[in-house]
Structures are given as structure tokens and as C-alpha cells.
Sequence to fold (421 residues):
Amino acid sequence: MMSAKLWAPALTACALATSIALVGCSKDPKDAQQAAAAQQMPPTEVGVIVAQPQSVEQSVELSGRMTAFEISEVRPQTSGVILKRLFTEGSYVRKGQALYEIDSRTNRETVASARAALNRQQANLNVLRVKEGRYSQLVGTNAISKQEYDDIAAQVKLAEADLAATQAELKNAEINLGYSTVRSPISGQTNRSTVTVGALVTASQAEPLVTVQRLDPIYVDINQSSAELLRLRQQLSQGSLGSSNNTKVKLKLEDGSTYPVEGRLAFSDASVNPDTGTVTLRAVFPNPNHLLLPGMYATAQIVQGVIPNAILIPQAAITRTPTGQAIAMIVNAKGAVETRPVETAGVQGKDWIVTKGLQTGEKVIVDGIAKVKEGATVVAKPYQPQAAPQGAGQPAAQANKTAQPAQQAQPKTEQKSTSNT
Fold:
């Protein structure tokens, strides 16, 4: 009986030791299998594009204001009272179209007086010419003195001069009579009339009767900084930027829409505004429907040159270091990731314009940059941009409605996590 009690603790200790040994033996193979499985994980898939150089137009976006192609402030050139307004305010008028009628009675009388004086001068000249003809016969027979003939010849010359002066007065009076009808000097759109019937106007007064503006085509005046213009000209002179012979301009309107018709750059000012440090550029746009109006604000996109052998890379593929250096990640021939510093020259749409750092045919990672690091082995697949599904907003809205009770149940916890984020 005593021997059995003494052996029981010994047997328990042996069983415990045996179980511990068995557990230790079974743990090591499991860890080895997990490590081997980790080493055999498939490489990460990334979306890549192949670098292909091309000629890229370099454009700049500048703000500007629209100005009428032609502007005419119509003023009276004779004095009188307005009898009629012969156009509708805001309507389109043609060159030479009558706009106002001014009381012309005074001008008519002036014309009649000048015509009567002309007739009198003509009659006087005719009498003197007849007398000169008689004297020319008498002086040949010495019936009159040479002095008398010279006097009558001089009177004829004076009468001819007076007749010419009277003819000029008549013509001037007729011109003033024509000014009694105020006509449009250009074709264009009229503004509000500043006078009404019965108003007294004077010749060459300061205030115009109406303003006529030609809106098709229309100017867009753009301001570009002198520093930017200097940089552009230096690039052109160094050959790093090709010149664009036909400079086209695109226009973005105030509501964000794009004007459907392209314009052209008309001229660049030859001097810099000392107050703003800018140079004025003027573009011309067709405006057949009068959609563009003077004073409108717009953003003009001007093609200023062509970058040869540039590569377009989606903006998602380019990252930047704290110092601002642009970095692209590529997949080399061995399937490993490499980082590559690049140089950019602006953007075109949703792509960076890369001028240095990439070679033709290199695979640039666009999708999956956050999942890889330099030296990692990856599987490269062609990058395919994903379009957002049309009904993507509905599930999200439903999820938000479902999550609202949870948000109300735990408001303090979520506010804390939001602040930490």
C-alpha cells in the first residue's frame, strides 16, 4: 500500500514531461511551414504603362477680359433738336444706317443762302467775261487803253475766285445738312440711347448719343507676367522648346464651360506695364451668336510651344520627396521595382509632362505604388483606368443611413477617433 502511494507522484511527473516534449516537437515544424509559406507568397500585381516619347504642346492658362472688335461712340456733328430715333435700342445696325433725325430747317436755309450766293457770283462772272471779250477787241484797235483791258481781266479773275469760295460754302452747307441725319459709322450692336426725342444736341458734344459695338469677331485681352514670357523666350532660344507657328487659343468661360470655337493670338504688346509687371496679349475669337460680350471674364489656354520627346505620365504615378523632387517607380527587366527621379514641365489634362528621367519602353507603375517598395519583385500588368460606376452613390447613401443609428449610439467614441485622424 505504501509503495503505490510513493510511485504515483513519480508517474505523474513523467507523464507531464513526456507531454511537454511532444508539444515542443510538434511546434517547430509548424513554424517552419509558416515561414516557408510566407516566402512562397506570390509577388504583388501592379498596373504599368509603357513610356513613349511624343511631341507635347506646352500651354499656359491666363485670365483675361473681352473687348469689342470695333467701338464707335456716335456723336452729333451738327446742332439741333432730336426729332426722331430711327432704331431700336439693343438691335443690330449696319454701317450707314440712320439712327437719329435732327431738326434741319436751319441747315436747309443755310444751303439755300449759299446756293443763291453762288448763282449771283456766277452771273457776275458771266458779265465780266463778256466785257473782257469786248475789251480784247477794242484794245487791238487802240480804242481803249491797255490799262483798261488789264483791269477788266483782273476783275474776271477775282470773280472766278469768289465763285470758287461760294461753291465751297455751298458744299459745306450741304454736308452740315447731311449731318442732320445721324448715321452709324460701323455695323454692330447698339447700346442704350442717351437722348430722347426733343433733346437739344450740339456738334461734337462730349456725351455720345449711343454706342455701337462690333461683336463678331471679338477680342480677349490677356495679361502674362514678364518673367514667364522671358522664360519662354529663353527656352525657345536654347532649343529646349519648339516654336508653334500657328498659335491657337482655347477659352474657358465663367461658368466653367469651354467655348466651342478656337481663337488665334493676334499680337503681343511690345512693352511691359510697370504697375503690374505684365505684358498684354490679344486673341481674336469668332463670335457669330454673340455669346461672348465685352467685359466678360474668361480663362484663355494658349499654346506657346512644343516640347519634343516628352512623355505623358498619369499624375497618380508621380510622387514627390520632401524637397520637391519628382519620383517615378518603374519595373526593370528582372521584374523588380526601381525608383527614378524625373523632371516635369507642367501638366496636360490629367497627365504630368515628363522631360527627363525616363527611357523609351520603360514600364512605369501607376496602380499599386503604395503596396510596393524599391527592390520588391512584382508582376506588371497593363494599367487600365477604372471608371466610377453610375450607381456608386446609392449604396454609399444607404450605408450612411444604416450607419446613422450606430453613430447616434456611440457619438463620443467616433468624435475621438475623428479628432485623432
Notes: The chain has six helices and 19 strands. The first helix runs from residue 2 to 39.
